Amino acid sequence: MAHKVFIDGEAGTTGLQIRERLEQRADITLVQVDPARRKDAGARSEALAEADVAILCLPDDAARETVTLAEPHGTKIIDASTAHRVAEGWVFGFAEMAEGQREAIAAAQYVSNPGCWSTCAIALIRPLVGAGLIDPASGPAISGVSGYTGGGKGMIAEYESGETSGSFLYAAGQGHKHLPEIVKHGLLSAVPVFVPSVGAYAQGMAVAVQLPAMGSEGMAAAEAALKAAYAGERFVTVVDASVHEPRVMPQRLNGTNALELSVHGNPATGAVTLIGVLDNLGKGASGAAVQNLNIMLGCDEAAGLEAGTAAAA
Ligand SMILES: NC(=O)C1=CN([C@@H]2O[C@H](COP(=O)(O)OP(=O)(O)OC[C@H]3O[C@@H](n4cnc5c(N)ncnc54)[C@H](OP(=O)(O)O)[C@@H]3O)[C@@H](O)[C@H]2O)C=CC1
Ligand SMILES: CC(=O)N[C@@H](CCC(=O)OP(=O)(O)O)C(=O)O
Fold this sequence. Notes:
By secondary structure, the chain is an alpha/beta fold. The protein has helices at 13-22, 41-50, 60-70, 101-107, 116-130, 152-161, 179-185, 215-229, 282-297; strands spanning 3-8, 28-31, 53-56, 76-79, 91-92, 110-112, 141-146, 168-169, 193-198, 205-211, 236-238, 259-266, 271-278. Keywords: Amino-acid biosynthesis, Arginine biosynthesis, Cytoplasm, NADP, Oxidoreductase.
């Protein structure tokens, strides 16, 4: 019998992309609410009662409300919002992050989908902290660029209407909402310095972690640690720096659920840059949610998902 899945926030940027990935699947039946009642607690409760799993693609407050509405029904939840990423009782939905994470997701009632920036940052930082190559108290510097779809319907409307046309830095005040999950799941004790940016294009993300004094031995060790951490993974791969030089193209993995990691640097100065590239709407949001759903339902983890480009394979 098909698994019943309710996407709360189905008309939003993340929700639509999840629906596209699920609607062709014979093993899944989508539970839907009348669009006119999509914000109505009663209509959402009925859908939650019918569904085996609900995927929340909502602002944080609405996601918290849905979790409360779902409680009496025992519906499993995958929350794409920021609301539960460091919350007790929630499993962080990044299967490749650590040994046993996939099994924890499979057994979970509540799974929190990681943020797009934090997926890259954690993927790069955590194995290097584990290998003793990043001091957890050092607060590494993180920067990056995202397409404007990362800002949801509001930011898409700004760009499509012409109200905003250029690129910009933001969160320079060091209060970005992904910092708590980067600290917790990156195994850091100090908060990193993080300055993200939005580029004047729709989709795709590149993130850089900067380590000023790692040296060439450190570079080789960093690459080895990343390769060991993601050995055998289909969606998270370590690629040669030459793949991303001289230009790191944030749109390279659009339409896929892939995350590519690479280690760049200058042996003469010892300065190293770790790079992560993904589709902010793929492994950064909707692709990751579908991967988590597959794990929770015991399906093929890659069902409905594209891996990386030929170069990434
Ligand atoms: N875009 C991205 O790259 C990523 C987004 N996320 C997270 O996913 C979540 C959704 O983001 P995104 O898809 O970008 O946002 P959007 O703004 O594109 O979509 C949000 C959707 O939620 C609906 N909604 C708002 N309030 C309610 C409510 N009370 N009840 C039911 N539906 C409601 C909105 O409806 P309406 O349009 O009618 O207002 C809209 O369709 C957010 O928490 C975001 O932080 C996570 C990773 C990446
Ligand atoms: C470009 C842009 O604005 N991006 C969003 C993050 C998108 C994302 O990862 O989503 P969550 O909101 O669920 O964490 C931001 O930086 O706030």
